[in-house]
């Protein structure tokens, strides 16, 4: 027969033969362990700034994904030239007659001077275009950084030497100047200079150009992490057990480099957003009539818009600032959540 024994002076029931006494608290009877991922998630949820930033970033991605539905519900699209469809809304110079760019219940963010595109739908589709390109570049650079960085760090020797020299060589290039100079060259590989360049070719060229000079920083970080990991006891144990290098990389190395991969990815994506917008602003990225964040900045910098509608810059400018700041704060929160020693 099992029964709790009350130790004199303590009053705490002691479990005999594995049966908890009547005074034992339920949570003390069973200890539940948590994985590193669960602990990270708990720390992240306690970070109010990170949670709010995640909601903001999610909102922008949701807007991009639902752009066609938003446009349908709104009743307008970013390609209609309202300067031709409704000339009564514009003066002889193509500037909206109503103040603040023609903002009204029909046109929530107004009309673009010149062609008269609807600014709201153009911004929604511009977010879609910029995020689509930036996500594709981020995925390509992360996969390349993982492949080359982990291979260089774990395999070492000649492999490490060759990959490291390639990284050093590419890091010597001035990224922005390379982007600007190489975009026309890459586009000319697909389309003759005499022909009009399709939008998909410009998209592919933007992804390729940014990918070429975008993966080295992550690869360097993963190389250093892999160099440290390959000397650990569990890696030596895996070698002794007869595991192949490929299996060791998949099962032992990669699970231990998830943290730097996620943290770096959250910093890389907003960087690619601004780089893509910069290329479109300079006229070597996405061009009209395809909506794009950077292309809207380019339009806002023209003399016609600057002199007649200073509110046009407000909507793409504020939206990009909010997105970049939120994504950077999200990156900080993810880093802090993975590092239990970090305290704000």
Q: Could you characterize the architecture of this molecule?
A:
The protein has helices at 26-29, 36-46, 48-65, 67-74, 82-85, 99-102, 119-155, 157-171, 175-190, 199-212, 216-229, 233-240, 245-253, 258-281, 293-300, 303-308, 314-338; strands at residues 5-6, 13-14. The protein is elongated, with a radius of gyration of 28 Å. The relative contact order is 0.13. It has a two-stranded antiparallel ribbon with strand order 1-2. Strand 1 and strand 2 form a beta hairpin. The protein is an all-alpha fold.
Given helix and strand content, the structural type is mainly alpha
The unreliable regions are: 5-18
Helix tally?
A: 17
What global shape is seen? Answer: elongated
Q: Could you tell me the number of beta strands?
A: 2
Give a short account of the largest sheet: 2 strands, antiparallel
Radius of gyration: 28 Å
Q: How is the largest sheet built, in terms of strand order?
A: 1-2
What is the beta-strand fraction? under 5%
Distance between the first and last residues' Cα: 53 Å
Average pLDDT metric: 81
Residue share in helices?
55-70%
Helix and strand pattern? EEHHHHHHHHHHHHHHHHH
């Amino acid at each position: 027969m099992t029964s709790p024994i009350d130790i004199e002076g303590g009053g705490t029931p002691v479990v005999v033969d594995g049966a908890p006494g009547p005074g034992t608290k339920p949570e003390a009877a069973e200890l539940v362990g948590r994985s590193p991922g669960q602990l990270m998630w708990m720390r992240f949820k306690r970070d109010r700034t990170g949670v709010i930033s995640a909601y903001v970033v999610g909102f922008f991605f949701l807007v991009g994904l639902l752009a066609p539905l938003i446009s349908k519900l709104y009743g307008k699209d970013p390609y209609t030239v309202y300067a031709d469809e409704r000339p009564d809304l514009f003066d002889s110079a193509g500037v909206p007659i109503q103040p603040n760019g023609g903002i009204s219940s029909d046109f929530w963010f107004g009309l673009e001077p010149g062609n008269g595109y609807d600014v709201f739908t153009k911004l929604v589709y511009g977010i879609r275009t910029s995020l689509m390109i930036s996500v594709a570049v981020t995925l390509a650079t992360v996969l390349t950084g993982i492949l080359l960085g982990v291979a260089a760090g774990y395999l070492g020797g000649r492999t490490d030497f060759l990959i490291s020299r390639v990284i050093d060589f590419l890091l010597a290039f001035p990224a922005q100047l390379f982007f600007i100079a190489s975009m026309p060259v890459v586009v000319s590989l697909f389309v003759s200079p005499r022909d009009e360049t399709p939008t998909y070719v410009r998209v592919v060229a933007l992804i390729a150009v940014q990918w070429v000079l975008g993966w080295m920083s992550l690869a360097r970080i993963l190389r250093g992490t892999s160099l440290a990991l390959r000397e650990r006891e569990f890696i030596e144990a895996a070698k002794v057990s007869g595991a192949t290098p490929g299996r060791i990389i998949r099962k032992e190395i990669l699970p231990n480099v998830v943290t730097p991969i996620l943290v770096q990815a959250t910093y890389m994506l907003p960087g690619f957003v601004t780089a893509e917008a910069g290329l479109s602003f300079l006229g070597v990225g996405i061009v009209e009539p395809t909506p794009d964040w950077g292309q809207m900045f380019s339009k806002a910098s023209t003399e016609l818009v600057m002199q007649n509608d200073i509110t046009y810059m407000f909507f793409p400018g504020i939206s990009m600032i909010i997105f970049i700041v939120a994504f950077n704060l999200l990156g900080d929160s993810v880093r802090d959540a993975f590092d239990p020693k970090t305290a704000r």
